[in-house]
Specification:
heterodimer; A: about 120 residues; 4-stranded antiparallel beta sheet; 12 strands; globular; B: 7-stranded mixed beta sheet
Chain lengths: ~120, ~110
């Protein structure tokens, strides 16, 4: 069965510092992996996705993630944090890439950006 | 992509009443829709998979008689929270699958007094 683990429920960085949010997955087949961001009282916004093409995926707002099969990881990074990056971040995995496939979420990581 | 809407965006009800939440796929015919629930400061938990023209598939631990799902058309799925109680207060989000991606509605905030 597929699952996702996000290490660190809360990450705090200073403005301008590197952002690293960790995600490890478990899947019986090559997975599709996603990072979403959620601002307070809002829905989900897709940051980026890995769909078996390039292992280094670039997303919106300067974020990127690298798929490492050997480590079963898909960590999210951003070189320089902005105050506006403060939000909740969710990693998600999908094994079945058909329209009926389930998307399973990690526990989420709250990113705090200090001035 | 697919555009997904939800109605209402926010609802407050009294304990014991039933509340219906609609999820619409505006530009895509969806045979399958998904319903998630998100408690404050927590992640999204998949509640059920809504199947057009047939019964929904519920995740373990989700009461099918309490959370009634109807997917009568290719563009509309409804979730009815029956006899709602304060512990049902949550953020309910639906989504539509399109290939490897899922497209999410904006969510419905349910508050049960």
């Amino acid at each position: 069965a597929q699952s996702v683990t996000q290490l660190g429920s809360h990450v705090s960085v200073s403005e301008g510092a590197l952002v690293l949010l960790r995600c490890n997955y478990s899947s019986s087949v090559p997975p599709y992996l996603f990072w979403y961001v959620q601002y307070p009282n809002q829905g989900l916004q897709l940051l980026l996705k890995y769909t078996s093409a390039a292992t280094l995926v670039k997303g919106i707002n300067g974020f990127e993630a690298e798929f490492k099969k050997s480590e079963t990881s898909f960590h999210l990074t951003k070189p320089s944090a902005h105050m506006s990056d403060a939000a909740e971040y969710f990693c998600a995995v999908k094994e079945d890439t058909s329209n009926t496939g389930k998307l399973i979420f990690g526990q989420g990581t709250t990113l705090q950006v200090k001035p | 992509g697919a555009v997904v809407s939800q109605h209402p965006s926010r609802v407050i009800c009294k304990s014991g009443t039933s509340v219906k939440i609609e999820c619409r796929s505006l530009d895509f015919q969806a045979t399958t829709m998904f319903w998630y629930r998100q408690f404050p400061k927590q992640s999204l938990m998949l509640m059920a998979t809504s199947n057009e023209g047939s019964k929904a598939t519920y995740e373990q631990g989700v009461e099918k008689d309490k959370f009634l799902i109807n997917h009568a058309s290719l563009t509309l799925s409804t979730l009815t929270v029956t006899s709602a109680h304060p512990e049902d207060s949550s953020f309910y989000i639906c989504s539509v699958g399109l290939g490897p991606r899922q497209f999410f509605g904006p969510g419905t905030r349910l508050t049960v007094l």
